[in-house]
Amino acid sequence: MGDAYAGVMAPRADSAAQRDGAARGRKHNSSPRKGDLRRDEILDGAERLLETSPVIELTFERLAAATGVPRSSIYFYFDSKWAVVDALIDRASADLLAEAQVVAPEADFDDFLRELTRAALRSWRTHRAVFLAAVERSSHADEATDRWRAIMADFVTLLTGRLDLEAGDPARVDVRAVGGAAMAAELICWMTERTFYMLFAREHTTAEEEMTTEAIVAANRRILGVRSQS
Predict the structure, then answer these.
(1) What is 32-79's CATH superfamily?
(2) Which range has the top average pLDDT, 33-47, 72-86, 101-115?
(3) For 136, 177, 198, 229, which has the most beta carbons within 10 A of its beta carbon?
(4) In the chain, domain spans
(5) What's the CA gap between 130 and 197, in Å, rounded?
């Protein structure tokens, strides 16, 4: 493969005009397309509607009225209201995962655990209606259940990666009693999801959110056998 491969992969000496044109193309491509903006507009409107009414009342008629986007245009992007709901769940989950991924991996594990939980709290505050719909939808349809489990698996993987790093020091973090890092991560992620669901599904105060978050952190530390550094 050697010389032929090298010839294919060899860099070209493009002109300045070609390089400038490519740069302009990349800049143009990085901008949101009109279709993407319209799709986001529909999703934003749907999320606003879910904040004030249950998902069962979400219709394309109400969505069109709330956004000013014609029903025919909504059908171009989504073939049913459940496709809209699933897209909202994917978007909110991606936002949470992105925030969780930037929690400093080199941080002390106590800080990492707390910041991860607080990232979940912030996302539940921002996307309360969407996450409520996600949990409730996953309880009633097999396909939705599989979809939500796949989303949760991303968070389990993220936490497992950090626990694997800590596993070398059982005097600091000990997951042996719960079956190892992967099992511990799964327990923590699902417990956190269910606890926030139970809280945000009812009327509550900001103080309760803070107390619940600290309780989750304390429970997670107990599950992981976390010991404070002396």
Answers:
(1) Homeodomain-like (1.10.10.60)
(2) 72-86
(3) 136
(4) 32-79, 86-224
(5) 11
Distances in whole angstroms, Cα of residue 114 to Cα of each of 95, 119, 222: 18, 9, 13
70 within 8 A of 64, measured Cβ to Cβ:
yes
Helices (H), 53-180: 60-67, 71-77, 81-101, 109-126, 128-138, 142-166
Gap between the Cα atoms of 160 and 182, Å rounded: 5
Enumerate residues 6+ apart whose C-beta is below 8 A from 11: none
Find all residues with CB under 8 Å of 185, minimum gap 6, and list them. 156, 157, 159, 160, 163
As a whole number of Å, the CA-based R_g of the chain is 23
Encoding tokens for residue 45?
A: 């409107």
With residue 220 as reference, give the H or E element that holds it.
Answer: helix 206-224
Specify the residue for token string 């599950």. Answer: 223
Indicate the pLDDT class of residue 167, thresholds 50, 70 and 90: confident
Predicted TM-score of the model (pTM):
0.81
What is the CATH superfamily name and number for domain 86-224?
A: Tetracycline Repressor, domain 2 (1.10.357.10)
